[in-house]
Write a structure and sequence with these properties.
Blueprint lengths: L2 H35 L4 H35 L5 H6 L9 H22 L11 H6 L5
Helix pairs in contact: 1-2, 1-4, 2-4
């Protein structure tokens, strides 16, 4: 196997891994959000969103790292590779789709964090929430 074939083989593996991680993340976040909204206890729901934000952040780091590896593998391909020839025909203002897909975990992690902080009763942030009750008991 030549170096170019080796790089191309690794690129295919990494792209498959990126696809799998993004698909897993989309399924995780969808099920987690829907499941969390079905929890009647608001304090438990807020804790679930805290957990969701942490897990989402960790999965997001894995997605972003894989995206960077895919980008490096694509850059390592020779100029005569079909990918680079096709890429040259795409207008400069249309970004690589992997960049947009890699931002999904960032956006949803922020959503999880906001939902955890906000609560669902229209109350002020931290007012009568688990955060105030358990982590800042002396706060008035």
């Amino acid at each position: 196997m030549t170096k170019i074939e080796s790089i191309d083989s690794e690129r295919k593996h990494l792209e498959g891994l990126l696809k799998d991680r993004i698909n897993f993340y989309l399924i995780f976040s969808s099920i987690f959000i829907l499941g969390s909204f079905s929890i009647p206890d608001l304090e438990v729901r807020e804790l679930m969103f805290v957990a969701g934000a942490l897990v989402s952040l960790l999965i997001g780091v894995a997605v972003w790292r894989t995206h960077l590896l895919v980008s490096r593998a694509l850059e390592a391909l020779p100029e005569t590779h079909p990918y680079k020839e096709y890429k040259a025909t795409v207008p400069w203002f249309i970004p690589n789709a992997n960049y947009a897909l890699s931002l999904i975990p960032v956006v949803l992690t922020l959503l999880f964090a906001w939902l955890a902080l906000r609560g669902f009763e229209g109350r002020e942030i931290f007012e009568q929430s688990w955060f105030e009750r358990y982590l800042c008991p002396g706060r008035t």
